[in-house]
Design goal:
This protein is an alpha/beta fold. It folds into 2 domains: about 150 residues, Rossmann fold, CATH 3.40.50; about 70 residues, SIR2/SIRT2 'Small Domain'. Helices cover about 30% and strands about 15% of the residues. It has 9 helices and 9 strands. Strands 3-2-1-7-8-9 form a 6-stranded parallel β-sheet, sandwiched between helices. Strands 5-4-6 form a 3-stranded antiparallel β-sheet. Strand 2, helix 6 and strand 3 form a beta-alpha-beta unit.
Length: about 240
């Protein structure tokens, strides 16, 4: 029995699956990740992406922040891929109880997943820092190179995205801990498991069906009950119609 066959068997037999995913879930939709050879961390800007995507940089150099953000983070033409679609199918079939994602692209919801916990927020939610009015991602994009301003009070608009130096939403974290700690099967896919506190969430898993699917090695490989070093699409495309 190959590892993929073992994985398919686990999925078939469980009705309490939680999926925890990172950038590798969306790379097959054309959205760049952060740490691969052609990811954001290897592209040339005046500042490294970690600096640009920090709270301090956003406050001090808002226009420069938005230039990078529009260019690299707003991938509004991206469409869900087979992994997003299969997860939505499995949820509709009562097998997947929650998708926990580090991504901010909204592709899980676009594919039809209902219970999505966004650890790092979403590009599709933006709010005026002065009056709190909400705006969609297109509104941000249509401001060109300028800082997006509220059409009611003129306040500065900030994406509902967790920047470096900012804390994660406490309720989202608590919900993620709940689903992971109660899961029968925990599938971790497309993440280097290098970003905390998100990576620490797997410590709450109590079961014996921890599946790790990633193209490259991660610090958690030794803890996996089933390790599949492959692209997510290659694995998920083999899941039969739920």
């Amino acid at each position: 029995m190959t590892n993929i066959e073992k994985f398919l068997d686990m999925v078939q037999k469980s009705d309490n699956i939680v999926f925890f995913g990172g950038a590798g879930v969306s790379t097959e939709s054309g959205i760049p990740d952060f740490r691969s050879v052609d990811g954001l961390y290897n592209q040339k800007y005046d500042y490294p992406p970690e600096t640009i995507l920090s709270h301090t940089f956003y406050m001090r150099h808002t226009e420069e922040f938005y230039r990078f953000y529009r260019d690299k983070m707003l991938c509004l033409d991206a469409k869900p891929n087979v992994t997003h679609q299969k997860l939505a199918e499995l949820e509709a079939a009562g097998k997947v109880k929650a998708v926990i994602t580090q991504n901010i692209d909204g592709l899980h919801q676009m594919a039809g997943s209902k219970r999505v916990l966004e650890l790092h927020g979403s590009v599709h939610r933006n709010y005026c820092q002065k009056c709190g009015k909400g705006f969609d991602a297109e509104y941000i994009l249509n401001f060109g190179t300028k800082i997006p301003l509220c059409d009611e009070c003129g306040g500065k608009i900030k994406p509902d995205v967790v920047l470096y130096e900012e804390g994660l939403n406490q309720q989202t974290l608590e919900d993620a801990v709940f689903y992971i700690s109660h899961a029968d099967v925990l599938i971790i896919g497309g993440t280097s498991l290098a970003v905390y506190p998100a990576a620490g969430l797997i410590d709450y898993y109590r079961g014996d069906k921890l599946v790790l699917i990633n193209k490259s090695t991660t610090p958690m490989d030794g803890r996996a009950d089933l390790l599949i070093q492959a692209g997510l699409g290659e694995v998920f495309s083999q899941i039969p119609q739920a």
